[in-house]
Amino acid sequence: KVQQDLVVGGIAYPKDAWTNTPGTILSKIPKRLHDQADHPIGILRSQIESHFKGFTPVSPAAAVVTVKENFDELGFAPDHPGRSMTDSYYLNKDNMLRTHTSAHEVATFRAGHDSWLLSADVYRRDEIDSSHYPAFHQMEGARVWEQSDLAVLKKLNAEMKKQLEACPLLIEDIAMTSGDNPYQAEHDPEFAAEVAQNLKHSLNSLIFRLFGQTRPGGAASNEEPLKVRWIEAFFPFTSPSYEVEVWWGGEWLEILGCGVVKQQTLITADVPHKIGWAFGLGLERIAMILFSIPDIRLFWSEDARFTKQFQAGQITTFQPYSKYPPCIKDISFWLPETASEEHGAKAAGGGGAVVQGRKPFHENDFCEIVRDVAGDLVENVNLIDDFTHKKTGRKSKCYRITYRSMDRSLSNEEVNKLQSIASGRLVDEMGLELR
Ligand code: PHE
Asked: What is the pTM of this model?
């Protein structure tokens, strides 16, 4: 009998045409790296929590949320690309793995918390390289005030401004709060501006705490102030919205997204009289910089040479153990006929039957299959050739797959086996024709 339900955390989710979450992804849910005090993700989480004094730490249980929580209630348009099956993991049409911690904003505000930090594992379908992994961790932070408390907020901002002036920080603020990135019509513009100011003070101070002491390669920080840049951004659930970047190793690194919470979120959460800000940051990206961890797969390693290097409360530099040689395999194929590409049925994916025609080729689907077969042995998937046959109009692609284990040497035979299983599945499930 065909299994009709996907069981996650003891709850059965009936499969449907949206089901696209493989077991390899579900197996990450119980790991909870953010709860491990001596894992880099847990260590970073604690550092941020101790920086935000008085904020309530929250850690939701289920990685499964409703589509309503992840998207609808946050104002995502019906055709927002994040909703697509190529970008997100669905259990079925109503339930999914959260793609961001913002999925818990409404519930956390509804629980009555005014200042909180929520850490959780989040899931996104993506490409494969040293900084992308389909499971990762985010921290959401938020702070709200009663709309009658403008005087309180102004006083707080004056104090924070003074404290920050003592830090060698160079802040470039090039974000507009007009045009596409306005204060909300529902807000007193003076209050909204103070909220945005508090957000900026709070995050500049966090960034200084995390990045202010050292520079890339462990160089001392007393030479140059730390450079931080605020640019405008767009999120459906904040306005104005910002992205914050840090100047690190000769480039601007994007650290987080944030903004003034859309009043609709607070209305939905039954706290319409409050006003405030929220941010969301990716813990892996920051931990990779602070601990000098070169590959995002290492966070999931259970090899003692990795896990034994870290202690609660300490940001230390990762000492790489020997890097094992890579094993590189190319795979070339023709895409299914153009016609079926364009008129591809919407369904299919993850165990579902393929309905007449194919959905358009998407690199994330390709990577999902490779990852499902080879797991953490895939280091990189890179498009190295892409062309259209002049006469027939058919499209061909060639991907280079780099296999490498973090813990041991791979044999060519073992990798050939993986490559052949992956090729077989790519043919069956995506209609590719090997060349
Ligand atoms: N959830 C957003 C993301 O994952 C980040 C964010 C959080 C932006 C809170 C604004 C406010 O990209």
From this structure: 0.90
**Best residue for ligand 1 mutational test, from 121, 235, 255 (most atoms within 8 Å of Cβ):** 235
- The DSSP string of 402-423 is EE--SSSPPPHHHHHHHHHHHH
- Residue 235 CA to ligand 1 centre (angstroms): 7
First to last CA, the chain: 36
Quick: pLDDT tens for 188-227. 999 999 999 999 999 999 999 999 887 777 666 667 889 9
What's the CA gap between 296 and 376, in Å, rounded? 10
- 288 and 294 Cβ atoms separated by less than 8 Å: yes
1 CB-near residues (< 8 Å, 6+ apart): none
- Compute the distance from residue 257 Cα to the ligand 1 centre, in Å: 5
Please name the residue ranges forming H helices in 135-180.
Answer: 150-165
β-pairing, 115-123 vs 56-58, is: parallel
Give the pocket of ligand 1 (CB within 6 Å).
100, 102, 140, 235, 238, 257-259, 278-280
DSSP 132: B
How far apart, in Å, are the Cα atoms of 346 and each of 2, 343, 353? Answer: 22, 9, 11
251: which 2 tokens? Answer: 């480039």
Closest atom of ligand 1 relative to the 99 alpha carbon: 4
H helix runs in 301-411, sequence order = 304-307, 338-342, 363-374
**What residues pair up with 226 in beta bridges, in sequence order?**
169
Tokens for 335? 């895409």
Atom of ligand 1 nearest to the CA of 257: 8
pLDDT tens-place string over residues 102-116: 999 999 999 999 999
Determine the distance separating the centroid of ligand 1 and the alpha carbon of 93, expressed in angstroms.
23
Tokens, residue 218: 């462990």
Residue whose CA lies nearest to ligand 1 atom number 4: 100
CA distance 97 to 25: 10
243 three-state secondary structure: strand
| In contact, 207 and 248? CB cutoff 8 Å | no
In this prediction the ipTM stands at 0.99
Amino acid at 97: L
What would the mean pLDDT of 58-83 be, rounded to a whole number? 96
